[in-house]
Design brief:
heterodimer, A: mainly alpha, 6 helices, B: about 100 residues, mainly alpha, 3 helices
Chain lengths: ~180, ~100
């Protein structure tokens, strides 16, 4: 396979995914209707998942699609349907300090990019899948390498994360109970 | 065009900034939560990019990214439960009408 052609192809695919991700992200913020925002967010998540695949991180890409696009977005759409948003399109969707916020965001982005321009991190291409090896030198794919790291090196953080999710579930159930006392 | 880590980082900075502006400008609580998800996703993009380009981080990048995804899922669950709990009392999803402590 022609090496230069492959590099050019992955560059083009990256450009397409990056452009679509940014357009979808901007649409999330601009859309007046929350349902449109949610659908644009779903598209942005899928584009970011595509970029994960480009970086040879296929396991994170798959989890991104399953957890974000499959789980979190369904939750969001469910709550949007539950919360009556019929009268929302008529109300003003933005805060009054919108100009200040956009200027602040622009300055933040300039700050990040200045750091990148002044002190660039070397070039190079992403690792190929066979760069993932065990200590014994056996070649692993990305998914297998992640499992290796998650269940051997980082078992304790993994267990803490599972406990954390359990606490979040219990907290959500308690908060969502119907017998919450009236605020006023 | 050879894509370097700097391109990935610039993209994730841009998405993070868009989410940041979204948190500041939107009045609807649900859209604010979506913007927070956007910011967390941009951070994930940074972590995975470092994992894909820095030899010492090779497979750890993905492990850290999975932890961030777990935090994002928990944040969305609890955030949406809070939306429902407040909506049941106040009948509005607009954040600037949540001023019960001021009165």
């Amino acid at each position: 396979v022609n090496e230069a052609l492959l590099t050019g192809l992955s560059g083009g695919i990256f450009a397409i995914f990056a452009l679509l991700a940014v357009v979808c992200a901007i649409s999330v913020v601009l859309a007046r209707n929350p349902i449109h925002s949610a659908l644009f967010l779903l598209a942005a998540f899928l584009m970011v998942a595509g970029i994960f695949f480009l970086e040879n991180a296929e396991f994170v890409g798959a989890v991104q699609i399953l957890v974000y696009a499959g789980g979190i977005m369904v939750l969001f759409l469910f709550v949007i349907m539950l919360v009556n948003v019929q009268r929302l399109p008529q109300t003003e969707p933005y805060q009054k300090q919108i100009v200040g916020a956009v200027v602040l965001g622009f300055m933040l982005n300039v700050l990040f990019d200045a750091q990148l321009v002044l002190d660039p991190i070397g070039g190079g291409a992403p690792f190929s899948p066979d760069a993932f090896r065990t200590a014994a030198g056996r070649v692993l794919g990305n998914s297998q390498a992640v499992a290796w790291g998650l269940y051997r090196e980082y078992l304790l953080p993994f267990e803490i994360a599972s406990l954390f999710l359990l606490v979040a579930i219990v907290g959500a159930v308690v908060l969502g109970r119907r017998s919450v006392e009236k605020m006023d | 065009m050879n894509v370097t880590i700097n391109d990935y980082l610039a993209l994730s900075f841009l998405i993070f900034t868009i989410g940041f502006v979204g948190v500041l400008v939107r009045r609807n609580f649900l859209t604010v939560l979506m913007s927070i998800e956007l910011m967390l996703n941009a951070v994930n993009l940074t972590i995975v990019a470092f994992g894909a380009f820095i030899p010492e981080l090779r497979d750890r990048g993905a492990v850290i990214a999975l932890m961030v995804i777990a935090v994002a899922a928990a944040e969305a669950t609890v955030g949406l439960a809070i939306v429902i709990a407040i909506y049941r009392n106040r009948k509005t999803p607009l954040v600037d009408e949540y001023d019960a402590m001021r009165r």
